[in-house]
Amino acid sequence: MIVTTATEAAPGRPDNEDQVFQHGPVVGVLDGVTAPDLPTGCVHGPAWYVRRLVTRLRESIDDASDAPLALLLEQAVIRVRGDHPGCELDNPSTPAATVCLVRADAEHLDYLLLGDSPLVVDRGGRAEALTDDRFDTAYAPIRAEALRGDVPLGSAEHVARQRTAALRKRELTNTPGGYWIAAADPRAAANAVTGRLPLSGPDAVRRAALLTDGASCAVDTFGLFDWAGLLDLVTEQGPGELIRRVRAAETADRDGYDRPRHKRHDDATVALCRFGA
Ligand SMILES: [Zn+2]
Residue 41: its pLDDT value, please? Predict the structure, then answer.
């Protein structure tokens, strides 16, 4: 497995709340979740949370690199709880993160998904995005209400709508019937979407791209290319080029009238894994 990565904070933001790592056979991309203006009960914040979670994932992998990915994540979430015992860990806005993990062995690629960080795979020449659909399904009506595209990004009305959406979203977080995400509740790990794909034979995975939504928006928000086109761009011109294209699209639609979204720019992360000859 050959891995190339790029990650970049949103322009003007001091902290990148995305993380990307490769540790032994595991590659991961995570996106820290911010709850704008809502009390979180945590003095640390999403950038700290996502960095701690990666540190604890690396330890879990060192302890048992071939354990199920959900078990590695569960152990990491439990350990991060222990890293901030003084914070209110049952606060519904406690820092959280999406998780997209893959692990390659000689024959298979295992994956784990939580939240809206997709895995795009090229299998036998066909590109498809593997996603955790529960987030989209649960959040779609809230999103439609918050992002009507009739007020400019960053305006008082836009900000007020994002806050209302965040309040409604947190009622769905880590609840059956809502969606699951890595936060303080280790049960999220057992509720992750997991699967195994072949690395040999006619349907073998040749390439896999792990993306945060700040990068997958190239396809599903801005329509710059399809998933096959995204994989080709990242393969031929590198992960950083995908982020550059996203920044140009974000800047071209500053007010978000054409492509309604929560933020003008978002942290963006790409990890490309290539397999075989
Ligand atoms: Zn804390």
Answer: 93
Burial of 191 (0-12, 13-18, 19+ CB in 10 A): middle
| Residue 9, number of CB atoms within 10 A of its CB | 18
Is the per-residue pLDDT at 113 higher than 80? yes
Q: Which CATH superfamily is domain 2-274 in?
A: PPM-type phosphatase domain (3.60.40.10)
Q: Is 70 exceeded by the pLDDT of residue 245?
A: yes
∠ CA 22-13-268 to the nearest 5 degrees? 40
Q: Are 27 and 101 in contact (CB under 8 A)?
A: yes
Kindly give the residue spans of alpha helices, DSSP state H, lying in the chain: 46-63, 69-83, 133-146, 156-172, 187-190, 213-220, 227-237, 239-252
Ligand 1 mean position, distance from CA 46 (Å): 9
How far apart, in Å, are the Cα atoms of 177 and each of 36, 142, 167, 171? 24, 15, 17, 11
**How far is the centre of ligand 1, averaged over its atoms, from the C-alpha of 157 (Å)?**
30
d(CA 32, CA 259): 22
> Quick one: average pLDDT of 68-96?
96
Above 80 in pLDDT, residue 36?
no
Tell me the CA–centroid distance for residue 214 and ligand 1, in Å: 25
89 CA to middle of ligand 1, Å?
A: 8
Q: Which residues pair with 29 in a beta bridge?
A: 20, 100
> What are the residue boundaries of the structural domains of the chain, listed by start?
2-274
User: What sign for the dihedral angle of Cα 168, 99, 235, 8?
Assistant: positive
